[in-house]
Design goal:
This protein has 251 residues and is mainly α. 67% of the residues lie in helices and 0% in strands. It has a single domain, classed as Heme oxygenase-like (Heme Oxygenase, Chain A), CATH 1.20.910. The mean pLDDT is 96.
C-alpha cells in the first residue's frame, strides 16, 4: 500500500498529480472493502442490507449541506453556479424529489420505516462521527481541500457498476425500482468529478497545495472506509451492535 503523505515534496506536474489522485482511488476507495465484497457476492442478510442503507442515509443527507458549505466559501459566481448543481441533484426542486428521496426509497424498499431512517437515531455512533467529521472538514479546511475531498466521485461509477448488477442478481427482494437512486448517479458523478478535478489541477500550484489535495482525498477515502468498518464490526459475524443502534435489541 502506497504511503501518500509525502509524494508531492518536489512538486508535481498536473498530469502527475492526476495520476496520484487516481492511484489513491485505486488503492483506497471502498469498493475494495470486505463488506462491499460480501454485498456483491450476495452474502449479506436482509438485516445487514438494511443496516447499510440506514447508515448510508446519514451520509447521503449530509451531502447537500456539505456542498452548500463549499458554495458559501467561494467568491467565484461561476464556481458557485456549477457547484450548485450538486445540491439540486440531492435535494431536488422541493427538498424531497432528488437523490436523498431516492435513497430513502431504497431504504424502504429493503423494509425499513421511512421516518426511522430520516431520524438517523438508529445509526451507528461511528457513522454519525464520520459524517460530522466530513462536514467539519469542508467547513474548516481550505476551499481547495474541500473540493479535493469530493474527488472520490471519480471512482463512484466503478462501485455502482459492481453494486447494482450484483444486488439485482443476488437479492430477490431488490428491484430496479428500489435502486432508482443509482440511475442518474454515474452521469452526475462524472460531470461533478470532471469539474472538481479540473479545479484542483488548476489551483494546486505548489507542492504544499498538491500534498493538501492528496491528503484531502485520502481523508475522504478513510471516511468511507471507516463507515464500512463500523458496519462490519456491528453487523458481521461477531455482532457487536452498540446499544441503541439499529437491531441492537435483536442481538
Amino acid at each position: 500500500m502506497t504511503n501518500f503523505h509525502d509524494v508531492a515534496h518536489d512538486g508535481l506536474t498536473p498530469a502527475q498529480l492526476e495520476a496520484v489522485v487516481r492511484q489513491v482511488g485505486a488503492e483506497r476507495y471502498h469498493n475494495r472493502h470486505p463488506f462491499h465484497h460480501e454485498m456483491t457476492a450476495g452474502r449479506l442478510s436482509r438485516l445487514q442490507m438494511q443496516a447499510w442503507a440506514l447508515n448510508r442515509y446519514c451520509y447521503q443527507a449530509i451531502i447537500p449541506r456539505k456542498d452548500a458549505t463549499i458554495i458559501a466559501r467561494s467568491d467565484d459566481p461561476a464556481f458557485r453556479a456549477e457547484w450548485r448543481k450538486r445540491v439540486e441533484d440531492h435535494d431536488g426542486e422541493d427538498g424531497w424529489n432528488g437523490g436523498i428521496a431516492r435513497w430513502l426509497k431504497l431504504a424502504t424498499g429493503l423494509g425499513l420505516d421511512a421516518e426511522t431512517v430520516k431520524s438517523r437515531r438508529l445509526a451507528l455512533p461511528a457513522t454519525r462521527f464520520c459524517v460530522g467529521a466530513y462536514l467539519s472538514f469542508c467547513a474548516d479546511r481550505t476551499l481547495l481541500e474541500a473540493v479535493a475531498s469530493s474527488l472520490t466521485e471519480l471512482f463512484s461509477p466503478v462501485i455502482i457498476a459492481e453494486r447494482v448488477p450484483a444486488m439485482l442478481a443476488k437479492y430477490d427482494y431488490v428491484t430496479e425500482d428500489t435502486l432508482a437512486y443509482f440511475r442518474p448517479r454515474g452521469e452526475q458523478a462524472t460531470r461533478d468529478s470532471d469539474f472538481a478535478l479540473a479545479y484542483v489541477l488548476a489551483h494546486a500550484d505548489t507542492p504544499e497545495k498538491q500534498q493538501a489535495v492528496i491528503d484531502a482525498l485520502v481523508f475522504k477515502c478513510e471516511i468511507l472506509w471507516t463507515m464500512l468498518d463500523a458496519l462490519e464490526h456491528a453487523y458481521g459475524p461477531h455482532g457487536h451492535v452498540p446499544p441503541g443502534a439499529f437491531a441492537s435489541e435483536a442481538r
